[in-house]
Amino acid sequence: MRLQLCTWPEIETYLARSTGIIVPIGSTEQHGPNGLIGTDAICPEVIAYAVGERTETLVAPTLSIGMAQHHLAFPGSLSLRPATLIAVVRDVVQSLAVHGFRHVYFFNGHGGNVATVQAAFAEIHADSSFGGEASPLRLKLANWYMGRRVQRLSRELFADSEGHHATPSEISLTWHAYPEQARPMTLTPRIAPTAAFGDARDYRRRFPDGRIGSDPSLASIEAGTRLFEASVEDTIEDYRAFLEQD
Amino acid sequence: MRLQLCTWPEIETYLARSTGIIVPIGSTEQHGPNGLIGTDAICPEVIAYAVGERTETLVAPTLSIGMAQHHLAFPGSLSLRPATLIAVVRDVVQSLAVHGFRHVYFFNGHGGNVATVQAAFAEIHADSSFGGEASPLRLKLANWYMGRRVQRLSRELFADSEGHHATPSEISLTWHAYPEQARPMTLTPRIAPTAAFGDARDYRRRFPDGRIGSDPSLASIEAGTRLFEASVEDTIEDYRAFLEQD
Amino acid sequence: MRLQLCTWPEIETYLARSTGIIVPIGSTEQHGPNGLIGTDAICPEVIAYAVGERTETLVAPTLSIGMAQHHLAFPGSLSLRPATLIAVVRDVVQSLAVHGFRHVYFFNGHGGNVATVQAAFAEIHADSSFGGEASPLRLKLANWYMGRRVQRLSRELFADSEGHHATPSEISLTWHAYPEQARPMTLTPRIAPTAAFGDARDYRRRFPDGRIGSDPSLASIEAGTRLFEASVEDTIEDYRAFLEQD
Amino acid sequence: MRLQLCTWPEIETYLARSTGIIVPIGSTEQHGPNGLIGTDAICPEVIAYAVGERTETLVAPTLSIGMAQHHLAFPGSLSLRPATLIAVVRDVVQSLAVHGFRHVYFFNGHGGNVATVQAAFAEIHADSSFGGEASPLRLKLANWYMGRRVQRLSRELFADSEGHHATPSEISLTWHAYPEQARPMTLTPRIAPTAAFGDARDYRRRFPDGRIGSDPSLASIEAGTRLFEASVEDTIEDYRAFLEQD
Amino acid sequence: MRLQLCTWPEIETYLARSTGIIVPIGSTEQHGPNGLIGTDAICPEVIAYAVGERTETLVAPTLSIGMAQHHLAFPGSLSLRPATLIAVVRDVVQSLAVHGFRHVYFFNGHGGNVATVQAAFAEIHADSSFGGEASPLRLKLANWYMGRRVQRLSRELFADSEGHHATPSEISLTWHAYPEQARPMTLTPRIAPTAAFGDARDYRRRFPDGRIGSDPSLASIEAGTRLFEASVEDTIEDYRAFLEQD
Amino acid sequence: MRLQLCTWPEIETYLARSTGIIVPIGSTEQHGPNGLIGTDAICPEVIAYAVGERTETLVAPTLSIGMAQHHLAFPGSLSLRPATLIAVVRDVVQSLAVHGFRHVYFFNGHGGNVATVQAAFAEIHADSSFGGEASPLRLKLANWYMGRRVQRLSRELFADSEGHHATPSEISLTWHAYPEQARPMTLTPRIAPTAAFGDARDYRRRFPDGRIGSDPSLASIEAGTRLFEASVEDTIEDYRAFLEQD
């Protein structure tokens, strides 16, 4: 159930049986020489849609632009500043709260979003904690690539070639979603370097083709399909547990 | 050309031949008893994708959540505050500017976004006008429903039943985009009332089913297809003129 | 009735019979070679004062500095950033709301303020729409130059020489208000160019003497007096209709 | 020389001989039972205009609304929040700096503005101090009632009846400026109480008619005229010394 | 009683007998050639701790970094922007208010904080004054160096050598607190210059060794001990009077 | 070397040999029935001071108040909102950057700070990444309780009784630092519950005495001394590696 494809009376009906919603959140940023710029938004979106269909759960429109300032030295990367993303998350949650949603499950595809979204949750709770009305909101940020089944499968498929950015797992998943966009490619070095980094220029200096520690030449549609199924299962399980939080 | 489905080296190549990009911007808000909540995002998105394909123009991910605070008394409506939307537009434009984009064409589906996006443009230019470096940016907000051909066709098809919110034109266009989501329906009153309004509760009091001045029972997939073609033509013309602005 | 020239007990008395107030809002910015920098503040102020006297309506002090960042390449222009003007409008409205004012009529002299003030209204309503207490506020932005009588008279007097900035209509009105400040002058070219523009430097490049599309050499005190009377009548009519909004 | 009554080429000429400008800043707030709500804006405005004429100094439009949140329990009082006033002062100074003004002399009529305007100055200087370009700006806040001659005269005229808010000195000065607005009145108690206070409701509880420690029944037009002359002299002296600051 | 060294049940007990707390606030900034960078935080901290012990008053952790942008041209100086310090003060006060504290006594060691903290108080009260719930908060900013006994003693000890920054009084007090950190030193010129200043670079240009108008070569541990005792007495008296404010 | 106990010329000298500094950051919040409210600030402070002495590294004043909104239902807890803490971290880093510091090592004692401080780092880098000057800054957040030696020792000492808040490790460390503040106590239940939580009231509902998953009755001064030494070693190692980052 995509929120965009419902009418408001249908949402009124939905709220009578559930106070939960999934909000996919990603990023629009370089993913190495052959990874799609939309990778981090596409991954949580396709999984969320499947979870939504299989469990009759409402799925909000994907927040496609995340906190990716460190990728801005690569053409096509878009970023919100942390303060902006905090405001976006706050406004979305507060909109949902007006309607009676209580369990808001942000389903994330981008590691760079995690700290900022957690800070946003704290901002939202602070309105209550600093003396406002008690809030019934339950907020969770889950990463599609952190589920139990996905982690096991990634290790099995790619081991030390998985790396941290432009990973073969996420590239595979996007090819599962958009098979016509698969761009198999041999990369040099095979595995990209790993390091701490500062601003966007420092990032590009250290990782000239954009990857961190990964070998996405191992990506395949078939791996993507397996990862997709694993993540859908992980997410159904995790979302159901989240809904039970009182 | 969807930015999300490109790699960064492909954007580098694109920038060598064009400094223009289309950014669809919409809203997620009630559209009356039978209109999709995603109407205002779906409309500019499908037109922008077609323009992108026919003219080899890059299209950014759709900004699906707009400034719709006045719709928040209807379940499912999401809104950013004006200050948040200003920050989002600013960050997107500044991200694009880092890469060398100069002509950023926001293609809009929601009247409620217009003032805020214009204020955002002024914020962006102000950084330069208040003494910063001269900015080469050219920014435009165009509404898909304001093109010459679309306006003529809407009048011809729906005349005084077009109204201001949940119009038969926009409902038709979403049914063209998602035919399986068509929800033909007879409405009472046939044409919704029109009035000035204050906050979200005042809006709902004046417009109990969400429509303003419109009769979306006239919507049809066929009308949607004609409006789609009209808007694509309008937009190609307008975007090309915009690109020529030095 | 100028708020500045009342005592607080007098306002207490006023509130017992009316919840309406007029807030003139303008700008301080170049108006071409012979137009006063205060034009956009002077025009709504003198009309508002006359409306205030003829209808016993309270008039707040003029907000003389508006959103005029695009004029900052011309000496003497002052501007607030959009975010600042939004905050000013919000604070003024919230101050008035504390006292029980419900109908706040911003009477404007500067096209560049419109988007920002509309965004400010949305910010104010959002406090309620996002779940706060229902707000009884009714807010309107009216432009002195958009009334029915004024528009007809401008067309009659100046036709295609009216233009968009430093218009003969507004220059005439300031000369009606300050006859000793009339600076009749022949200009070259007679009618200034028209174009889209970016930041302040781009504005000055395109419009070297500050005018857009206008020929203020046609301005006269006599025309100003006629425009003044037309606008006072337009505004009394419009303000009365606004007050009736429940 | 009022900025509002100049053209931009005239300001260009002015800047060739002076980098100084006076910005009157006041407040719109209750001034006791017989004091004008505009008192704190009127006082610095009339003095600044006189200084401007006698010394050929440019005077910006008066910032009529200040930081007066503690007066909001009295009808008609308007206030900006401190953060808003800081933004207004910053934007005005930055606008002036674009044109080459270096000495900006805020001429104030409201004690409640002082801390906030000083904080605004620090915000402006911080842009440079935190690593930006060195700033040539010299900023001063002067209060019309703090000059040497005015202080001596107030003591001579009103001694212990001067008090802290709605003082006979400021009331007298507004009557000098607007003789038709004089509202002589006997007050009970003759001298209002003095105390520390918290928010606006606490203020009204402690000072039921709005005055603090003053007896404005002593106000007179004649006293106002003497105070006006004293302050004009004080201010000319102080402004000239300020201009000499390198 | 240091808040940091209590448990929450102990604070619960404290609140049953008192609603007051002392919050030391200082700065981390250059204090001339031989003054400690922590001077302005150390001074109010040691006095507050003594007052806390002698009167069984709770003392919050010291806010060690203040508004000191004008000192940033000297290595080691840290500053918050005014907007940041306003937010810090607001959050601390609102945290305390949640628990039932009503009398919050900021005890200050840095003149540069005064305007900003006063603006912060106004921001806090504004939440109530603009229409929120009535606030019982009483807020005071007291400077350790402004007490009656301290002022008398400083004049007696240092007369015209006291000056305005890096004064012998504050240097002495830090040596009383940290005798091993005393750095007696002869300075040239003996008394530093005095002047108005703009940004940090302008400050350093005018005061090359950081002092303003002072001769800290007169500082001594013995003077510090006498100033400490004087200030503790001043502060106990002032805090007790503050607590009685209803 | 404590920054507060240095003079500015000494910092000038220090910068000639090192661009690194340690900034302890903690929180002021309830730590269960017998834990000190200052626990999270005291722990990193005492370790940082020891590291500073043993390695001649500069240590900034402790940021004692962190992001702890979820603890506000327990008396004595103080919190900054995330946006405030982001501003504080940004201002501190930018102050340090003005002087030439390049390696800023935030040494943290509070898990609730982590997301917000990471978001702050992204805000700081964003100024460069969005098109500003390239930044040489290297920023790291390290938690005292996450070092290799500390983790091993905590497991050895407390195993499953360590828990997540008011842990025996942190309580022990504060008793090492302030032996006179040790408050040995038997608690019921011995091990506190663990759960996800929402706002401050929800936190208190789930964890009535403030602890999460821990048994601080196991705390001892002796354990604290061992943890202190372990953390000092961990931190010296980690800080040195950080300094080598180019």
Describe this structure in words.
Chains A, B, C, D, E, F: Its cofactor is Zn(2+). Chains A, B, C, D, E, F: This is Creatininase family protein. Chains A, B, C, D, E, F: It holds the Pfam family Creatininase. 6 copies of one chain form a homohexamer. The mean pLDDT of chain A is 98. The relative contact order of chain A is 0.18. In chain A, strands 1-2-3 form a 3-stranded parallel sheet, sandwiched between helices. The first copy, chain A, is mainly alpha-helical and 246 residues long. Chain A has helices at 8-15, 39-55, 82-99, 114-129, 148-158, 168-177, 200-206, 221-243, and strands at 20-25, 103-108, 138-143. Chain A has a single domain, classed as Creatininase (Rossmann fold, 3-Layer(aba) Sandwich). Chain A is globular. The first copy, chain A, starts with 7 loop residues before the first helix and ends with a helix. Chain A contains 8 helices and 3 strands. Chains in contact: A-B, A-C, A-E, A-F, B-C, B-D, B-F, C-D, C-E, D-E, D-F, E-F. At the B-D interface, loops of B face helix 3 of D.
Task: Summarize it.
The structure is a homohexamer of 246-residue chains. Chain A is mainly alpha-helical. Chain A has one domain: Creatininase (Rossmann fold, 3-Layer(aba) Sandwich).
